[in-house]
Amino acid sequence: MRLALLALVTCAAVCATVPAIAAPAQTQAVEFKSGDVSIKAVLFMPEGPGPFPAVVGLHGCEGLNGPGGVLSPHYREWADRLGKAGFAVLYPDSFGPRGIETQCRSRGSVLRASRQRVADANAARVWLQQQPFVKPDRVSLAGWSSGGTNTLWAVRTRARAKDGKPDFRSAVALYPGCTRLDALAWAARVPTLILIGGADDLASARQCEKMVANARGRSARVSFVVYPGAYHGFDHPHETLQVRSGYALSANASGRVHTGTNVAARNDALRRVPQWLAR
Predict the structure, then answer these.
(1) Which of 172, 187, 201, 178 is nearest to 269 (CA)?
(2) For residues 156 and 141, is the Cβ–Cβ distance under 8 A?
(3) What's 144's domain CATH number?
(4) Contact yes or no for 205/195 (Cβ under 8 A)
(5) What is the rounded CA–CA span in Å between residue 253 and residue 49?
(6) Mean pLDDT, contiguous 10-residue spans, the chain (279 residues)
(7) Positive or negative: CA dihedral 177, 178, 181, 183
(8) How many domains does the chain fold into?
(9) By C-alpha distance, which of 199, 209, 206 is closest to 233?
(10) Domain span at residue 163?
(11) H-helix or E-strand containing 176?
(12) Residues 192, 169: Cα–Cα separation, whole Å
């Protein structure tokens, strides 16, 4: 296991030029079962004949889509970037089929991270592994915010699925919540990359660092990167630093959290994530 602290120049909001978004990947709507729920998902296909490595992407507490039901530009850009790197990307919508708009401001356990969303991730993996254009032993998992937390739940050592298919090859969790997982002695069964901002006041970098340190010696490889001065959502394409209120969970229990692009952290994540998934 490797524990790393990346020293980067702090850059709040958009104080430098953000690289252009990659050429759009081909998209199509798909549907598959997760238990008794029909999950709708968006599939992004890279250019070429395949078969391709693939990534299951788990959205955060705001859901997969933005205003008007259109896929969030944040997830669209990641799919385009990963598509350019040769990955097929599948985003399951865990909220829409269950009539949920957002979970950011609700403490109610509408969806349990350790159950329904893990089930959705595994169902998405199995669906991909059944497609002729996917390499079945090269399906990885990535998640953002609460989706990052769900990713850590999905790859912990005690959560291996019994579906007879190859396991996730690797995982990436961007700014996940780690408190409960640390209390449950989290350890990863597949190589896992965790990226988080040092100034994040929604998820705690310190708690994630503690979780990773506590898993040393009983976990698959974990690479942990903290971006000094970066807040939650540092990898968004263009989001001015802002304060949001009314969140059900925040590091200081105030319900107020900062979100916004940090160019130095974003650029490093855009480089680091495809490299990790390509291992």
Answers:
(1) 172
(2) no
(3) 3.40.50.1820
(4) no
(5) 50
(6) 40 36 69 96 94 97 87 95 97 92 70 84 98 98 97 95 96 96 97 98 96 96 98 96 86 85 98 97
(7) negative
(8) 1
(9) 199
(10) 2-277
(11) none
(12) 9
Rounded Cα–Cα distance for residues 90 and 64 (Å): 12
Quote the tokens at residue 45.
Answer: 């296909």
pTM, rounded to two decimals: 0.89
From residue 71, alpha-carbon distances to 27, 42, 87, 127 in Å are 11, 9, 19, 21
- Give SS3 for 87: coil
Q: Is the distance from CB of 155 to CB of 188 less than 8 angstroms? A: yes
Q: CB–CB of 5/226 below 8 Å?
A: yes
DSSP secondary structure of 32-51: EEETTEEEEEEEEE-SSS--
Tell me how many degrees the CA angle 207-3-114 measures, rounded to the nearest 5.
Answer: 45
Contact 244, 145 (CB under 8 A): no
CA gyration radius, the chain: 17
Amino acid residing at 3: L
In a 3-state reduction of DSSP, which class is residue 78?
helix
Closest to 211 in 3D by CA, of 191, 187, 195, 228: 187
Residue with tokens 């090859």: 169
Nearest to 41 by CA among 15, 71, 62: 71
CB atoms near residue 32 (< 10 Å)? 18
pLDDT attached to residue 254 = 79
Two tokens, residue 221: 């490889």
Pair of tokens at residue 213 = 């340190």
For 112-172, give the DSSP string.
-TTTHHHHHHHHHHHHHHTSTTEEEEEEEEEEETHHHHHHHHHTBGGG---SSSPPPS-EE
Sign of CA dihedral 91, 235, 88, 224: negative
SS3 31: strand
